[in-house]
Amino acid sequence: MKEIKQEEFEKELQLHENLVLDFYSTECPPCEALAPKFESLAELYGGDIQFVKMFRQGNRELANKFGVMSSPTLLFFKNGELTGDTLSGGVRRSDIMRNLDALLPADRVKDIHSQIKPITTDTEVLVLGAGPGGMAAAIYLAQAKVDTLLVDPMLPGGQVSTTHQVSNYPGFIEPQPGYMLAHYMAEQTKAAGATFKVAVEINKVDLIKKEVLIDGYETIRAKKILISTGASPRYLNVEGEKELHGKGISYCATCDAKYFHDKEVVIIGGGNTAVEESEFISKFASKITIVQQLPTLTANKTAQERAFADPKINILYEYEPRGFYRQGDKMMVKVEDLHTGKQKELVTDGVFVFVGMKPNLDQISDPIDKDDWGYIKVDDEMRTSIPGVYAVGDVISKKVRQITTAVGDGTIASIALTKELSAEG
């Protein structure tokens, strides 16, 4: 591993057929998450590829030349030419390896891969998911001198990190950008003594054996497992939806309705959540248009009656969204008449999508008790049906899913875990 300055870069390119450059910053959590991966891969591929890093803010001219706007950013070069993917943010080991492999002959790649040796890491509590619930539990556990490791396929924060602003979290007078609140939580968790392995690939989870395989070669063994993998909105999977998530499209009325005071919004969905949340959003918005694909609403009758009685709410039946995009400071929603196939555009200030949530449990195959919607059942101390396995936050069966309730779940679970570990010696 070699650190260089921008004036040394051309010389390095000339000296080495293959080169990978890491633009990093200080006080940068994604950079901290990348560093051990980059260093271990430098040891593995270093005989064939030159690994260099460069402080982005101190070498702006070169960073600007390559359009690097965030840290970390990895660039790959072959024979002096930029090639492969530009990797930034929560960079995964497998993505780095794929680009490194592309620089080398296939037989050399095979030889390098054969040198990867499985490793095992032991911990007392493995926290699956570094959202607010998982981090709250980790803080309490680490402060109780329990060896705690958090694993997440993304960066710390969960849904909070992509939330525009959080104005109802205790302790902050001014609304906090979601990514900053997530950062504060992560830094507090580290300061307490817990460790993170984030932006990793979770290959296998065995709740019975208390083992998790990450990045294809590292097995983490724990005495206890805490599941805090959260839940995700069900997406419409139409044009512009993912790009405008958090930039005009929201999936949480409690989080974002207050930002649409005296403005117009479109709500997608006609079930209980959509109709009940429309009543809450109506406290702020001046006009609401509900887009429902069916000829009737499917929410409970009481919620429907309140919606029908609200003069702010208009319902567009038998239409489906086909795309979202911005035009100046307005959101444009392209919808299609399911009878005629004709499309039209709705001009609005914001969009709320309520077509359901799903617990993030795709990688858990062990038999664990769940409710009718697939959320994990827990007792009043957050224990699941599998001994030694707890669950907290949005992934569990409960009525209210908020940052504060996830943090409360994590607190309860951590105290129960600490007592259980102490009793077992």
Description:
There is one protein chain. The protein is an alpha/beta fold and 425 residues long. The chain folds into three domains: 2-114, 3-Layer(aba) Sandwich (Glutaredoxin); 119-232 and 358-424, 3-Layer(bba) Sandwich (FAD/NAD(P)-binding domain); 249-353, 3-Layer(bba) Sandwich (FAD/NAD(P)-binding domain). The protein has eleven helices and 24 strands. Strands 6, 7, 10, 11, 12, 13 and 24 form a seven-stranded mixed beta sheet that branches. A five-stranded mixed beta sheet has the order 1-3-2-4-5, with helices on one face. Helix 9 (272-281) links the parallel strand 16 and strand 17. It is globular, with a radius of gyration of 24 Å. The protein starts with a strand and ends with a helix. The mean pLDDT is 94.
Helix content: 25-40%
Any guess at the CATH architecture of the largest domain?
3-Layer(bba) Sandwich
Radius of gyration over alpha carbons? Answer: 24 Å
Overall pLDDT confidence: 94
* Beta-strand segment tally: 24
